[in-house]
Design brief:
There is one protein chain. By secondary structure, this protein is an alpha+beta fold. It folds into 3 domains: 4-58, Winged helix-like DNA-binding domain superfamily/Winged helix DNA-binding domain (Arc Repressor Mutant, subunit A), CATH 1.10.10; 69-163 and 257-290, Periplasmic binding protein-like II (D-Maltodextrin-Binding Protein, domain 2); 165-255, D-Maltodextrin-Binding Protein, domain 2 (3-Layer(aba) Sandwich). It contains 11 helices and 14 strands. The chain has helices spanning 4-16, 19-26, 30-44, 60-87, 100-105, 107-117, 130-138, 190-201, 214-222, 232-241, 268-278, and strands at residues 49-52, 55-58, 93-99, 122-128, 144-147, 157-162, 165-170, 182-184, 208-210, 228-231, 245-246, 254-255, 258-262, 289-290. Strands 4-3-5-13-6-14 form a 6-stranded mixed β-sheet. Helix 1 crosses helix 2 (19-26) and helix 1 (4-16) packs across helix 4. The longest helix has 28 residues, at 60-87.
């Protein structure tokens, strides 16, 4: 019978690429990880991993099985958290995943006030791009996601929304953004995809430079490297201080509301977090509104 320990060992190896690194992550011996992999492979009946240089890589059956393994472990963690959270929301665990902009400029203040009001909640936060955070929710490795609109293929529930605008910014003095270099986020970023769609709609093909993170593109724009499309939330201070200027562009600002999204059967602790999110003070434009 497949055990949780075997699945955890397998997922750790798929993440790290070696038995040694997986053992270090799980804080067990390498022989324990090897034994778990051998037992799991015998049970599945097909090779899941193969040697690749000094490490290991997934076979095609192994890649397919890895997705199910993650979902099984995620569902188990979600079930335990839901049971404990419904019994005592004040001492439950809530796993939050946020896209980079929200993780840097919105979620920290919410976490700080939540910990002050509900110190017993075990809140875990992971920050990544759009592709990463929705993958975590799909695999049941996150309880609540703060991001843009969820993919239509994802069976989830929107709990709250908040206004968000994407604007084109650059160093003061730029007259025509199309003559400047456009600074792009990494592949998998929702903002990058939106920026590319905007340029395509304008039939524009400016020079581009990929910097790989929200903080990097904002800093690059302020340093004079070029212009970029970003959330107004991430550049509010720089715009107010005059380090950046909002540049007029057709079709902008783009309205891309923030969404707080969970699985349809959310725990009481997730409900507590959403309630706290919507109770945050501030002007109407920056307040969360409950949905449903």
């Amino acid at each position: 019978m497949t055990t949780t320990g075997r699945l955890r060992a397998y997922v750790a190896v798929t993440d790290t690429g070696s038995v040694r690194a997986a053992a270090a992550r799980l804080m067990v011996t390498e022989s324990a990880v090897s034994a778990a992999l051998a037992a799991l492979t015998r049970e599945v009946g097909v090779p899941l991993l193969e040697r690749h240089g000094r490490g290991l890589r997934l076979t095609e059956p192994g890649r397919i099985f890895a997705g199910y393994a993650r979902e099984i472990l995620g569902l188990q963690e979600e079930g335990l958290a839901a049971a404990r959270g419904d019994a005592d929301p004040e001492r439950a665990r809530v796993r939050v995943a946020a896209v980079t902009t929200a993780g840097e400029h919105i979620v920290p203040t919410v976490i700080a006030s939540l910990r002050e009001r509900h110190p017993g909640i075990d809140l875990r936060l992971e920050v990544g791009n759009r592709e990463r955070v929705w993958g975590l929710l799909a695999a049941h490795e996150a309880d609540l996601v703060i991001a843009g609109r969820p993919p239509r293929s994802l069976d989830a529930a929107v709990r709250a929304v908040r206004r968000n605008e994407l604007v084109v910014v650059g160093p003061p003095g730029i007259s025509d953004p199309m003559d400047a270099t456009w600074l792009l986020r990494e592949a998998g970023s929702g903002t990058r995809a939106t920026c590319e769609a905007l340029l395509a709609e304008l039939d524009a093909d400016p020079a581009t430079l990929t910097l790989g993170s929200n903080g990097a593109v904002v800093a690059g724009a302020a340093a004079g490297l070029g212009v970029t499309l970003v959330s107004r939330d991430s550049v509010a201070e720089a715009l107010a201080a005059g380090r950046l200027a909002e540049l007029p562009m057709p079709h902008t600002p783009l309205r891309r509301p923030w969404h707080a999204v969970s699985h349809r059967h959310a725990s009481a602790a997730v409900g507590l977090l959403v309630e706290h999110l919507c109770a945050q003070p501030g002007p109407p434009a920056t307040r969360w509104r409950r949905v449903g």
